[in-house]
Amino acid sequence: MKPRPWLPTSHIINLKAEYKDILKAVHLFAKRQKVELYLVGGILRDILLKREKPSLDFDFCIKRGAINFAGKLAKEIKAGFVILDREHGACRLVKRKGEKCVTFDFSDFRGKDLENDLLHRDFTINTLALGLNEVFSKKSSGVELVDFHGAVKDLKAKVIRVANKDSLDEDPLRIMRAFSLSAIFGFRIEPKTLALIRKKAAKLSAVSSERVRDELFKVLDCGDSFAHIVQMDKLGVIKVIFPEFDPMRALKQGPYHHLDVWKHSLETLKQLEELLYSLRSNSSMQAYLDECISADRRRRQLLKLAAFLHDTGKPEALRRREGKTIFHGHERIGSDIAEEIARRLKLSNDELQSLSRMVFWHLRPGYLADSEPPTERAVFRYFRDTGKDGLNILLLSMADQRSTCGPLTSQESREQHERVVLKLIKRYFKRQEEKELPHLINGNDLIKKFKLEPSPLIGKILAEVEELQAIGKIKNKTEALKAAARMVKNA
């Protein structure tokens, strides 16, 4: 079939030598097998956008027999092989190339020919194609793109548009992908696609939580997640993936707040992103936020998720006493809800614990700020209890405070809160540079000295001794044992 490019034939692209080097073995094998392969989708889009990715992913389509072809290719090039979707002949090869991991995806045409197959892709910007034979022809001026569906036009206009009206029915995850692509590229979703998302949003409930999670975290990775989350909320998408938020909507709070619980949660996300932007030149902060907790998911993304989860416990905790609205214990309830959500999204145990800890302790910096300056003992206990999440919790607390602008919230209290939190942030980084203090005594010392039996009391005494050492009250083993003696006596 002769390609009928949407653009004039003068529109050509050049593949980097690195890409050609990777694709050469695939091309030679396809040539021997007399198979016509087409390179499609994201890699071509990214070349036009001059976008570099740390991972190399190549998508191919073939008229038929993709699984059989790719299985033989895997043996030829010694690559890992997995079937993704037998019905559509979709499979994946993974091969190590130097320090990089290269992924090759293959699938059968989802139609009678290439043009029809591309129509079944998610969005027009992903409907580009390139014949692999053309890539390795003797032409020195580049290779002509196949563009049946206006991909380049929409790339230039920075528009995300469904490739066909049934696109979201074919794979409802594309609802989430519309927002993740918008977040990654800064493109707008065109009105008819937005209307289709609103109409089809409920279909997301049938999509596996892992797939939804991956697209959500791409949204949370951009600098303006707030705008995308708000748009998702208006179109009914958030309601489907986070039904826990429904009771928060229109739930009024006390006079310290100017927004209902849900709008306050969104405002906290907005304020958090503004705060993170203001800290963009702080290399230590950026290194912390960019730390991977699991797979390629980072602290920054999890913190943003915590921002609009932090008050999920308020609807259940709501009580009205003597005309006052109170939410006593909402942080504990919210922590439990955060854990349920983390399990549903198939987050790792480390991510679950981090998310739960941020929600549970998000009020703690505010309590510390009530006393300026907080005591050394209170600061030690804060960092002991919050661990590595202590810094994220401080950032969340500041964003939470900035989102609280009711008539009873004073400028003086806000400034005091920020002064204390900023000092604690500096303290966090200083603690990272300090050497861990050596243990002055251990459990065996307590058993031998005080004839104690193994029990929780030993752990309690050691924890209190560690605290006294950290705040400078004791400095050696003799002083530690004297302190322990007092604790044993009072036990």
How would you describe this structure to a colleague?
- The chain is an alpha+beta fold and 491 residues long.
- The N and C termini lie far apart (86 Å).
- It has helices at residues 17-32, 42-48, 66-77, 114-119, 132-135, 151-157, 167-170, 174-185, 191-200, 209-220, 225-234, 237-241, 261-278, 283-289, 299-307, 314-317, 330-344, 349-360, 364-369, 376-386, 390-402, 411-433, 443-450, 456-470, 477-490; strands spanning 12-13, 38-40, 56-62, 80-85, 90-97, 100-108, 129-131, 143-144, 159-160, 188-189, 292-294, 297-298, 319-321, 324-326.
- The longest helix is centred in the C-terminal third of the chain and has 23 residues, at 411-433.
- It is globular and about 85 Å long.
- The chain contains 25 helices and 14 strands.
- Helix 17 (330-344) packs antiparallel against helix 18 (349-360).
- 53% of the residues lie in helices and 11% in strands.
